[in-house]
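Reopening this one. Same input as before:
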Amino acid sequence: MSQTADLAILHAKLITMDDQRRIFSDGAVAVRGSRIVAVGRSAEVAATFTAKETIDAKGGVVQPGFVDCHVHFSQHLGRGIIPDAWPEEREHAHWLPYWLNLSEEDANAGTMLACLEMVRNGTTTFCDNGGKFRGDAKAAVVNRVGLRGMISEVCWDLPPYPSVSVGDTDACLKRLERLTQALPKNADARIWAGVSMAGMGRCTDRLLVEGKRLADRLGVTLDFHQSFGPGDVANYRKQTGGKTAIEHFANLGILGTNLQLVHMIYTEDSEVALLAASRTNVVHCPAASTRVGMGVSKVGRFPEMVAQGVNVALGSDSGNYSDFFDVARQAYLASTIHREARGVMPAISAHQALEMATRNGARSLGMLDAIGSLEVGKKADIVIHSGCRPEWHPGLNVVNSLVYSAQSASVDTVMVDGEIILRGGRFVRLDEEAEYRKIDALAQNLHRRMGFAIPSPWPLD
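Same output, byte for byte:
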């Protein structure tokens, strides 16, 4: 007897990313409600399920949605304007006036821009590290688009400037507690609050420990930046009497499966071993380093982390660092820059990079039981690529084609929770062109208020 489904996707090159990493040359997925009810060969799924809607993928690739484990929504209105001549430490000459002049409407526009970009590039789940304003407002924007993700607010009790402080340790903890109550994590929530902090020496030990306890109690991820550059690494050694950051975190008791450390460029071999033993997650943001020359390909120990079993996920970071929110491009960089620096093939393979972009990201956010692969019972977060693109041909190795050539250029249809939010390259819930007009106008007004002159080596008329 035939079973019913709301949607069936047939005749796809299907990359499941399941435990066996099965790939079907003529594969299908059936969806009922928000869940996947069948994965397999097209002939078998079509014979078993009668669907209200059928999509013929026509040989295009179908994959689980990408997971972007590190973004900053509110900085997206300022991307692309920091000069190449500025070293990384000068970024604050733009960031501080941007932050001080940013309105809540501006921040919401940055969130909208980020969400539009992520969907177009095949991302279905994200982790936002925090912004100036309440996370509830960001969540409302995300819900308009239809994405899944972890929301947070800026939290630090040792801020770099008094003007960006959100209060002392108690105030930070109250802010974290409020948001987690407003956006609780449960099986049906597309948007939930995690426990995110600035990190990198901008948080006291008490804030880190109490934040970890809150994350443990609520079953969410504790997320913060760490070891981005030599400065914050040296600062930890100074504060802890010579210990590395990860040694210090081990002594604090905050390492573990629900801790997500972002960047980790300047990491020692002893720290890699501690990360692996504690099953702590690391988010590799290769574009954020290469854009500002932080040395990730030269000193980053990400191949060692992968080899020792550390769960390494991928992140895009922010508009004033990598300048784009595209996990597929991050996967390409992760799989190439380390072999280029080391002269080793492959330091990280295309297959490992695709794991980082899907399953590993889901694991880092505590969501592997629900997303990260196409399996029966999991959430229907699905990306369909158009096969009518030159990047996919001749397509003799589908994983290599995805990571090295096609990446996100061919994303055609995106589904989250069984709902199609991008169909045939068009957003279903909103007017994309109208959003861009509003975004551009707000960005121009923001930078006018800042008094920031955008330098150019070429004449602008």
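So the earlier flakiness isn't reproducible anymore. For the record, The first helix runs from residue 42 to 48.
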